[in-house]
């Protein structure tokens, strides 16, 4: 009979391992270095963003079990860059809850349908939805209950506008159903919202929850364009969002960092999506907070007591910088030079080898010292104009 070697009881070479090597892993690695914590990254290539900062790189597909096993042999705890993982395979090699968050706690969050079922089970608010598989067997009278436009979303892998498609009419819907082989999609009612909000926070092994300010996110072409912190919302709405966050992480006994995206409009506050990881909407926290979202995750997973979260300024503006078309007149090097010359800029380059249209290449953050929200909005739009003159959003 074969016995599994208890590799957890052997002293490992690295405190933390990260499955994935993109920009989120890069910023996690940077946060770890500030704390003197050694990190090993499992990623497809040494040239991936986190490869340049990690103490050691396992060059392997993050979804391949052999690479996962190699990572476990090297590291005390394993954390995730994103939720695109194979829970079933990781469960076979899990040893004494080496993963943070635990596999059990993220089981319900790794695809959109399981997320929505969790939200419904907890009686929390969300848009009306149905799986494509179930939609295809609806009777005509039930289909009439779905009004256009609609949104179709892929179950997994949706990000930066990918995996989302607006369906404007019956012809669009029929074309989508005929042209899509996979049933791994869902249909969601279209939400006419006034604001898109996001809340990112952490929960440690003691059950203590720490929250970043609720932010307002501004989208363009289904991709986050810029983020204003904090959002201007009333006490009741803020309390409701915080209660939703707390309810979900406590229900799942979730340890780590989580982000929740919300729609807010005439139908109240609705949960759009849950991200069981660090989140684009809280990149501002690197400069604007006493402890960033990356610092929180690093501390929690490595056994360091996470600091409390406080703002370093009255507000902040974070702008995403996406890849532009090949013939854009300003080369990247010149764009970076001009952006870093803007007063108060905090530029973060992701180190990606190729610029592709729509690809997240960098972000830039500005602290806002205006005490009044309207003044912060005004200042943000002034800065945004300057930034977009140098590095526009794709398709502008």
Question: Your description of this structure?
Answer:
The structure is a single chain. This protein is an alpha+beta fold. It folds into 3 domains: 7-100, Rossmann fold (3-Layer(aba) Sandwich); 128-189, Dna Ligase, domain 1 (2-Layer Sandwich); 193-390, ATP-grasp fold, B domain (D-amino Acid Aminotransferase, Chain A, domain 1, 2-Layer Sandwich), CATH 3.30.470.20. The protein is 30% helix and 27% strand. The chain is built from 13 helices and 18 strands. Strands 10, 11, 12, 13, 14, 15, 16, 17 and 18 form a 9-stranded antiparallel beta sheet that branches. Helix 1 (23-34) packs across helix 11 (293-302). It starts with 13 loop residues before the first strand and ends in a 6-residue tail after the last helix. The model is unreliable at 1-8 (pLDDT under 50).
Largest sheet: 9 strands, antiparallel
Overall domain count: 3
**Helix run count:** 13
According to CATH, the homologous superfamily of the largest domain is ATP-grasp fold, B domain
Q: How much is the average pLDDT?
A: 93
Shape descriptor: globular
User: How far do the termini sit from each other?
Assistant: 64 Å
**Rg:** 21 Å
Q: Strand pairing plus helix content: what structural class?
A: alpha+beta
Percent range of helical residues: 25-40%
Label the CATH architecture of the largest domain.
2-Layer Sandwich
What fold name stands as the CATH topology of the largest domain?
A: D-amino Acid Aminotransferase, Chain A, domain 1
Q: What is the CATH first-level class name of the largest domain? A: Alpha Beta
The proportion of residues in beta strands is: 25-35%
Task: Point out poorly predicted stretches.
Answer: 1-8
* Record field, number of beta strands: 18
